[in-house]
Amino acid sequence: MISVVSLPTNLTVSTNIIATSVPKTRKQSRPLNSDLRSLTKSGKLDEALRLIESSRSESAAAEPDLESYSLLLHACISRKSLEHGRRLYLHLLLSKEKGNHDLLKNPILTSKFITLYSVCGLIDEARQVFQDGLKDENVPESVWVAMAIGFSRNGYSKEALFVYRGMLSRLVQPGNFAFSMALKACTDLLELSTGRAVHAQIIKCNEEADQVVNNALLRLYAECGCLDEVLRVFEEMPNRNIVSWNSLIAGYIRHEQVSESLGAFRRMQGEEIGFSWVTLTTVLPVCSLVTALNSGREIHAQIVKSTRKPDVPILNSLMDMYAKCGAIDYCRRVFEGMWSKDLTSWNTMLMGYAINGRIQDAVGIFNKMVDSGIRPDSVTFIALLSGCSHGGLTEEGQRLFNKMRKHYGVSPTVEHYACLVDMLGRAGSIKEALEVVKLMPMRPSGSIWGSLLNSCRLHGKVSLGQFIAERLFEIEPSNQGNYVMLSNIYANAGMWDNVKAVREMMERRGMKKEVGCSWIQIKNRIHTFVAGGGFEFRNSAEYKKVWNELKNAMEVFGYVPRTDVVLHDVNEEIKAMWVCAHSERLATVFALIHTSIGMPIRITKNLRVCVDCHAWIKIVSRVTGRVIVLRDTNRFHHFREGACSSPIEKLQFPWIAHIKLPNASIPHLYDLLHSLMLVLLVELGYQYYSKNHKSHWNSSTGILF
Questions:
Q1: What's the CA gap between 48 and 53, in Å, rounded?
Q2: Which of 98, 336, 468, 560 is buried most, with the most CB atoms less than 10 Å from its CB?
Q3: Least confident of 142-151, 227-236, 693-702
Q4: Whole domain around residue 556: which residue ranges?
Q5: Nearest CA among 72, 69, 17 for reference residue 44
Q6: CA neighbor of 491 nearest in space, from 513, 509, 517, 524
Q7: 637 and 561 in one domain?
């Protein structure tokens, strides 16, 4: 037997000493079993084993009973005490050799020994015990299930299913334990067809599935993306617990049904089911996905009301939600109120500042983090470098990159080099960025070439963009974003034949340009808007009323649509119409209609916001007095009183002074001048209109007209 052969010599010797040091005739004040159970329950496993080993020299009648052995073995499992379990196994083996009853064949003890070895990671020894047990003709379900669970626990889900099939081949009637084990293995392997076969067996056996089996079915279908089956099993369950609701929410999330997942969480609270920390770590990222701040704050309230003290990972998730909803001040409050902070806490706060355009605060948190004795890691510097890139702090970013390895022992990875290349490219130092790519110690990834391609788009480098795009098409032939980026470069240069060629290439390869979508939460409901869509909404009287009021206000502030952002060879009138139907504009107007005056507006977009929509929303924030938070794929834009929080959008004169005009491309310079003129027009128009007209606010939308 493997478990006997692998016993250390010193353990065998000490066992013999203990066994011979106890008198053969021992008067007990209480029966052996009573003493043994008392020692086991109090956790005195060494004394319990000495008592058992001392009984081996006496008659068989002095042996402990099955219940005592089972209780002791259960204690070994709960403590993962392999040493005590092996001593017990050796005792039973020696007792068998003396002619006593062979308890090693007892299915209860066999199952427990299999479980002990498997929880201690000794799957081969567990398998040996199992194979010895198979020598009997009638092996009960408990032994099969113990072995299958042992395999599954150690990452051998295929072997677990093999054991389940072996049990069926022996004509052993599976019960709920076997069914739940098989379903878990199917879930781990994403074996949907096998899982459905197990489900059919449950129905065929007329076995009334208990809550554990139903939860296993829910998890299987949720992980495999079968939402219809999830809903059917869930609705048919006579009793549901937290695990059931967690599986339902996970099913909705897998199908990107954000409103439904948040609605399920609210239903769960309405039925007073409560929640687990797993529930919250599942739901909070959903709030982050569509900036559903209202739902996130409801969850925060549930945490505060809970009698349980939230652990650090939960508070980290809460911080992440607030940061990704653009509520960075709430994120900071959670951070400052934490009773304990780990590295993830600091990184989350730092990343929150960085993505919300507050890079100086991010650098400040980094300095506090270092002063507190927290050693930064790779994630820390990705957040810092990304923030410096989007914040225009090129010199600071380069300084941090150079200090990574020297001062903090963090070796730059591909992600760090991608941030550095993006930072240099955005600043117009494309030659320097190419030099970094040339000298970096690892093969450049698609993200690095993608950053260079984006820099070519920003600065009008057509020929270099063509070269980089060809490299990207080899590395990432299925990434439609690269084709769209090249198409944009051609369109900005007026090369419409090349634009057409790129689109035809995409069609041949079965790719379509991703449609712009925006999401907004109003009264716990997520509303989705698609660019060019929403015909019924755009034709409604309330939309036309608000749109016309905005249009009149825009004219006062000198707003003229930037039709060059429409990358199609069509006339100017059609371009202006298409710009007005961008998804973020539809979401903004919808929010103005359906929210109270002065309420902040939070929008999420799946693509980068265009220059014209950025300018349009700035004026909307001025004429309505609203704070508008827009999250696109690059960053957060916090619009307030006609200005954007993004450092690059502030257009401060010191920043302008650093631009090298001789090397600046025409499109980049044009964007700069257009934005600067827009800021001046907004301010002059507002002052002129305020002086010469009696302005007032619309009572329903809050628009100045």
A1: 9
A2: 468
A3: 693-702
A4: 523-692
A5: 72
A6: 513
A7: yes
